[in-house]
Amino acid sequence: MKQFVYQFKEVQKPDKNLFGGKGANLAEMTKLGMPVPQGFIITTEACTQYYNDGRKINDDILDQISKKLKELEAITGKKFGDVNNPLLVSVRSGARVSMPGMMDTILNLGLNDEAVEGLARLTNNPRFAYDSYRRFIQMFSDVVMQQEKSKYERILDEVKEKKGVEFDKDLSAEDLKEIVNLFKDLYKKSQGEDFPQDPKVQLIEAVKAVFRSWDNERANVYRRMHDIPYEWGTAVNVQSMVFGNMGDDCGTGVAFSRNPATGENVFYGEYLMNAQGEDVVAGIRTPLPIATLKEQNPDVYNQFVEIAKKLEKHNKDMQDMEFTIEKGKLYMLQTRNGKRTAKAALKIAVDLVKEGLITEKEAIMMIDPKQLDALLHPQFDDKALKNAKAIAEALPASPGAACGKICFTADRAKEMAQDGDKVVLVRLETSPEDIEGMAVSQGVLTARGGMTSHAAVVARGMGTACVAGCSALKFASDEKSFTLNGKVYKEGDLLSFDGSTGKIYDGLIKTEPAKISGEFATIMEWADKYRVLQVRTNADNPKDAENAFAFGAEGIGLCRTEHMFFEADRIPAVREMIVSSTVEERKRALDKLLPMQRKDFIGLYKAMKGRPVTIRFLDPPLHEFVPHEDQEIKDLAKEMGLSFETLKRTVEDLHEFNPMMGHRGLRLAVTYPEIAQMQTRAVIEAAIAVSKSENYNIIPEIMIPLTCDIKEFKYVRDIVAKEAEEVLKENNVKMTYKIGTMIEIPRAAVTADQIAQYAEFFSFGTNDLTQMTYGFSRDDAGKFLDVYYAKKIFESDPFARLDQNGVGRLVKMATDLGKSTRPDIKLGICGEHGGDPSSIEFCHKTGLNYVSCSPFRVPIARLAAAQANIKFPRN
Amino acid sequence: MKQFVYQFKEVQKPDKNLFGGKGANLAEMTKLGMPVPQGFIITTEACTQYYNDGRKINDDILDQISKKLKELEAITGKKFGDVNNPLLVSVRSGARVSMPGMMDTILNLGLNDEAVEGLARLTNNPRFAYDSYRRFIQMFSDVVMQQEKSKYERILDEVKEKKGVEFDKDLSAEDLKEIVNLFKDLYKKSQGEDFPQDPKVQLIEAVKAVFRSWDNERANVYRRMHDIPYEWGTAVNVQSMVFGNMGDDCGTGVAFSRNPATGENVFYGEYLMNAQGEDVVAGIRTPLPIATLKEQNPDVYNQFVEIAKKLEKHNKDMQDMEFTIEKGKLYMLQTRNGKRTAKAALKIAVDLVKEGLITEKEAIMMIDPKQLDALLHPQFDDKALKNAKAIAEALPASPGAACGKICFTADRAKEMAQDGDKVVLVRLETSPEDIEGMAVSQGVLTARGGMTSHAAVVARGMGTACVAGCSALKFASDEKSFTLNGKVYKEGDLLSFDGSTGKIYDGLIKTEPAKISGEFATIMEWADKYRVLQVRTNADNPKDAENAFAFGAEGIGLCRTEHMFFEADRIPAVREMIVSSTVEERKRALDKLLPMQRKDFIGLYKAMKGRPVTIRFLDPPLHEFVPHEDQEIKDLAKEMGLSFETLKRTVEDLHEFNPMMGHRGLRLAVTYPEIAQMQTRAVIEAAIAVSKSENYNIIPEIMIPLTCDIKEFKYVRDIVAKEAEEVLKENNVKMTYKIGTMIEIPRAAVTADQIAQYAEFFSFGTNDLTQMTYGFSRDDAGKFLDVYYAKKIFESDPFARLDQNGVGRLVKMATDLGKSTRPDIKLGICGEHGGDPSSIEFCHKTGLNYVSCSPFRVPIARLAAAQANIKFPRN
After folding, report:
1. With contact defined as beta carbons under 8 Å apart, do A848 and A827 qualify?
2. Known catalytic residue at A407
3. What is the ipTM for the molecules in this complex?
4. pTM
5. Are residues A27 and A334 in contact, defined by beta-carbon separation less than 8 angstroms?
6. In Å, how far is A546's CA from the nearest CA of chain B?
7. A365, A462, A651, B593: which is deepest, by most CB within 10 A?
8. How many angstroms away from the CA of B53 is the closest CA of chain A?
9. Dihedral sign, CA of A610, A613, A617, A623?
10. Spans of chain A, pLDDT less than 50
11. SS3 A77
12. Are B642 and B584 in contact, with CB atoms under 8 Å apart?
C-alpha cells in the first residue's frame, strides 16, 4: 500500500515533488536537529488521488491520517480535543513551489468548547484561549467553509462598540467568550449545522479545503503565468501549534538570511512580541527589526542566526524563515529559499560564489531569467515613487517606466519629440501607422486592447513601456483630451506610468535608465562562458540594434523590412508601388525606396559592428499599407493624383478573406520580383559600403519569408542571387552572402529536406508556425482561448511558450530533415519564443545555432541559454 | 555518349517515355512489318537537354541528327535538297501522351527553289510541286517562325481574286509559282532574312519549334489540367513524306478500329482522294466514309482492315490511325489508342474482355475514371441539342445539363419547385443562404465568380449543374430580369445550359437522367471485385444520400450538419441560439432545433439502409449564420424582437480577422457544449428510431471537426459520450457508437498518436489540411496561384489534387502515428480529394480504409480505387 502521510521525522529524502517545498524543508530541519514543532505531511500524491477519486479523500488516506495523528499525539504528549492537554495544529498547503492564491494557513485547529477550557487552564490565560478559539472559528468559516468573512468582522466590531473598546487586545476573556458564542450562532445559520466540535472532522475539512484550493481560479491563473503543471498537486502540512501570543516572553516573526531587496549579506527581518502570525501581517502594531531581538533575547537571537547560517549553507541559498518564540524558546515554523528582487538575486548569486558556497554554474541556475526583465527597462526612481499615488491601473503590457508630455497622435509625438520634449503617446488603440510615433515616445498608453493588442506586441518588441486597455480612461469625442480619475488631461500635460505594474500616475516621476554592470555583468559573463546557443536580436532600426548590441546581442536574427516601409517619408513611395499597374511603374516607385532602404541597412550594419545581420524581405500583405476608409482613400487619391474610383478599386482588390493566409511573404516576390530585386540591391550595396568604410567583413544574410515549397523558394532565391551577383559585378567586389528562409508554414517544415537543398539557413518563425500548426490566428484566438484555459485544455499560451508537443515536433522534424540534405545548415528561431526561457531550452536541445529576440530580452536569453546547456550539455 | 536520335527500325523497345507515343508506335509498326514511310525520332531526353542547355540544341544532338538524316537518305534513296530526287519530310511533335496545344505538324519540309523543280519533274506535276512548296512556306512561317498567318492568307486571296478563281484547286502551276515568290518576299520582310533554302536549316528550326511548343501557354494549361509533369518533354518525329495529293490514285484519311462515339466493333473513319491531311480538316471538300474505300480500292481496304485488326490485337485497344495512299499504295502514318466518348470507352473495354483480347483488370485500367463524370449527370438529348445554338458560353463549373424556368431568388426557386415547376436559378453570385434554392433547382447560373466560387463548389458537391461567371449576362438594376445575347429574360422564361461545356441556350432542350446500366454496370461490378478501398459519400440530406446509394456508396463519410442549419425553417432558431446570452437561452433555442436535426438524421439513416453514416458536428464560424448589412440586421432585429444595437453588437463581436482560423469547429463545442449535446441527442435518438423501425444494426459515427489537441478532443468527446449514454439509458437501449475526429489541422496530424488514444476514427479533411499546411486560404490564393502556375512553381491545383509531397506527408504521418496507439483505427478522407483519382491512389497506398466524395463522384472513386489496387495490390 502506498504511503500518503509521513511524520516529519520519518522523511528520509526531502523530495519536494512528493512533500511540497514547505513539508520537505520542515522534515529537513527536523533531521538537522533544529527546533521544529512536530507534525506530519499529507503528500502531493494524496492531492492527485483526491482529484482522481472525484474530489474525495479515500478511506485509505483517511486511515493513514488517523494513524499519523495518533503518533503525533504520542510525540507531543498532547491529545486532540483533550480537556486537559489539547493538541492544537496548524494546517498549511505546500506545493512544490510556493504559490500565492492557494489556501495558506489554518491556525489553532483542534479547539472546541472543551479544549478551549483546557487551554485556558493550561496556560492560565482564558483571554488567550478564547481569543485563539474565536480566531480559529473565524478562519475555519472563511477559509475552509468559504462563508462571508465580513459578517464575522461585523460581529467583532459590534461587540467592541458595545464594550466601548477600540482594539481587539482590549477585549476581555468574557467578551471573547461572547464573541465565540455569536460566531458559533452565525456559523450554524450560514452553514446549516453546528460548528464541528470533533477535531478530526475539523482536520479533514481543512485538508479538503487545501486540496480544493489547488484548483481555485487564482491558483489556476498563477499556474498558467508561471508554467506550473496542474498535475503536480499540493501537499498538506499538519503541524502542532506553538504560540507566540502567550505572554511577553513569546513572539513571532519572519527573517531572511540576507537582505531580499538589496542582496546584502546581513540578517534581516522583523518580529512582534506576544503575537500570532496574522498580527504581524495585520499592521496594527509596528513590528520590530530583527536586530532588536539581539538586545531583547541574545541567546535566542544567536541561536537563530546560527540556524540561519546553517540552513543557508545546507540549502545553498538565501533563506526566508518563519519563527515563533514560545515562553523564551525558539521554534522554526518554516524555511525556504527566499524571494528576492532581481537586483538582490544577482548580488546573492555572485556573493555565494565568492564565499565558496556555490559554483558559477549553480549561481547561473539560481536566477530566474524572466526576473531580469525588471532590470532591462527604465525604472522609476525609488524615492520619487514613494510620494506618488496611482490614479489608475490597467494591463502591464510592456515593462519599463515612462513619463512625459501627453500627446494623442503619432505625428504630434514626432513633432514634440523633435522639439526635444519627452512624450507619452495616449491612444484609443494603435495601428501600424503609429509605429514611428511609438518609437519616439517614452511609453504608450491605450484605452482599449489586451496583452496581445497591436500596441502591446509592438511596444514589447521595441522595449517601450506600455500600459494597455485602461478602460477608466475616457476620451473626449474629439479625442483631443481625456478624463481619468476625475481630472481632464490635455496635450502637453504630464503623465507617468509603469509598464511592469500597469500603474498610472499623475504628473512627472523621475526615471533611471537600465544598464548592465556590477553583479549583473558578472552573471552575464558567466552565462556566456557556459552557453553554446548564440543570442541574436530582432531589430528593425539602428537604435534597437545599438541597444541590443549593448545588451550583448551577437547579431541580428530578424530585421523586418516592412517596418521601414511604414515610415512617413517612405509610405508614399510604397503606396505608389502598390497602385502601379505595370512593372515599369512599380520599378519607378521602387527606385525611390532603394536609397532609403540602403541607408537603413547601412545603419544596421554599422550598429552591429560586423556581426551578422539577417534581413527579411517584405512580408505583410500589401493592404496593410493602404487606407480603408472612404475619406482616407479620397485624401490619398488626391495626394497621389489618382481618381477615387481607381484607388478604391485597388484597395478593394487587395481585400482578403483571411489575410494571414493571403498574398504575403515571398508570394509578393513571386508576383513582383522587382520588389525582391530592389531589396537585394539595397542589402548588397549597403554591405559593400560598410565593409569598405568600417573595414568589417560583412556576410549579408537575406531571409525569404513564408516559403512553403522548394520550387517557390528556388524561384525567389534565383532572382535574389542574380541581382546580388549583378550588384557585386557593378561594384567589382567579391563578397560571400547567404540566402535562407523562414520556416513558418507547416509545409516548409514537412519538406525541409527539399528546401534545404537551396536554403543556406533556416529561421523558425514560430509566431506564424504556431498559428498555422494550431489553425488559429492570434487575433481571433483570444475569443476562445480563455475558455480553453478555464477548462484546462490549454495550460499555457502557445504564443508565449513554444508548444513543444506539436509545433516543437515540426521544428524538430524540419531540423532533422534540413540537416539530412545540408549538414552544415544554420538554424535559428526568431519568433517571440526566442526570448522565452523554456522555449530557449527547447531550441538548445533541438540543436539550433541561435535564438533571436527583442533587444530587451537579449540578457534573459543569454542566461536561459546558459541554464539550458548546464541542464543538457551539448558540444 | 547518350543516343538522342533513333531510326524507326532501330528501336528495340517502344518506350513511350523516351520516344513519345507517336514515335513508339511508328517504330512498333515498322517492326510489325507494316507499310510505314521511314524516318527517325529525336527523343524526349533531347527536349529536356534543350531546356537544360538554356533552350539550345547542343552540338552532340545536332551531329546525331545529321547522322540519322544521312541514314534516312540511304534508306529512302532520296537526298535532302536534291534537284533530281529530293527527300521531303514531315516534322511532328510526339509527347508521352497526346497533347493538344503543342505544335503539331510541318509537312513537305526539304523543299526549296531547286528541289521544287525536281519534285515537279519527278511527279510530272508542276502544279502539285508548287502547291506543296507554297504550303510549306506558309506552315513554316506560321508554325516555326510564328509570323502572322493572315498576311499569307491575304496574298492567296488576292491572287485568287486577280485570277478570278474561287478555290485553291483552280490555281495553275504558274499562279502557285507567283504565290511562292510573293510568300518568299513577305517572309523576308517579316523575318529580316531570306526564306531558308538549306533543308538542314529548315529541319533544325522546325525541331526547335517543336521543343519550344512544349512550353507554350496552351500546353502548360493543358498539362496542369491533366497532371502531366513539365519534366517529361516531347519527342520529335522526322518522317519521309508520302503524298496523297499526287492524283486520283492517291488519298489520305483517318480511321478507327471501332466506333469512337458508340464503341461498336465496326471499322470507322473517313478519307479524301487526291488530298493532303490538312484538306481533310479544312472542310471544303466532304470526306467519304471509310466503307467507300472498299468499293474504290478493295485491296487497299482489305489490307488496311487487316492492319487495323493486327494493331488492335497488338496494342490491346481500339486504334486511331492516319493513313495515306500514294499511287495506289497504302502507307500508315500513325496509330494510337483512340480517344473515345465515355460510353464508347465502357463498351469497348467490356467487348475486348468478351473477345478474350484483355482481362477484366486490363479493362479496368483502360478507362479514365474522370471520364465517367460525363455519364453521371443529366444530359441533353442528342437530337434536341443538334438544333440548338448556344447564346453564350461561360465557365463549366459543375457538370450536367439543366433546363427550366428562370428564377432569381432561392425563395422563388423553392416556391416554384413546390408548384411542380422545373427551375434554373440565375444569380449575380450565390451565398450560403441560397443552398436550399440551389438544391431544388435543375441548375445554377451565375454572372460572377470562378471555378471555386461558392456556387461552383456547392453545386459540384450537390451534383447540380452550374455555369459560373457569365459576364455577358447583365442584370437589370432591380435584379428581376437580365439581358443576354440581346434578349431580356424574366422570371419564368425558359433557359437551358450545360455545366460540362459552359454553353447556355435559349429555351428548353430536353434532358435525360443518368443511370448505371449495361457496360457501365459491368465495369463497376469488376471494379468492386478488385478494390479494397471503400467508397463512401459526402451527403447532407436524404436526396443526396439516395443518389449516392444508387451510385454504389457504401456509407456516408461526411454529413455536414451546418447545411441543415441554413434551411429556412431552422435559421431563426440558429440565430436565436447565437444571440443567446445565457446557457439557458441557448438551450431553449437548441431545443427547437433538436427535433429537426433528429428528423434529418432519420432521413439519412433510412436512405443509407443500415450502412455507416458519419455525422460531423457544427463546423463553420457562427458569423456565417447572421446578416452583415445594417438593413438586414435591422430587419432581423425586428423579427427577433431585439434592438438593432444589440444585434449589431452581436454581429460585430462575431467578426473575425481570419475566419478560417477562428472560432469554429470543435472550438464551438468547447465554448458551447450544449450545441454538441443537442447534436449528440439528435444522432442517437435518430439511430434508435431507425434501428427499431427498419430493423437495421446502426452504429452511429460522430465526427468532431477541427481538433488540434488531445485534451481538446477528449473534452468534447467526453461531453458527447456522456450525452449519448444518457440518451441510451433513457431509451433503455444498448447500442455501439463511435466518436472520431477530422484530421484537418497540422497539429492534429503531428500529434495523431495522442489523439488516437481517444478517437476511434480519423477522417482526413484535406481541404482545410491543405489550406493550413500551405498557409494559404482557398479564397485568397486564387489571386496569386495563377502566377505560380505561369512560373511553373506549382504544376497542379493542390485543392483538386492532393499534394502528396507536403500534405501527403502529414497524412502518412498521422496514419502511422494513429495506428501506433490504436492499431485498428478506421481511416478515411472526406475532402474534395476523395473523388480525385490520383489522390485516391495515394489514399490506397497510404492504407486508408475509405474515401468519401460527392455522390456524383462515387462511381469514379470506385473505379479509381480498383485501379489503385491493381497497380499497388494491398491485402
Report:
1. yes
2. no
3. 0.83
4. 0.83
5. no
6. 34
7. A462
8. 17
9. negative
10. none
11. coil
12. no
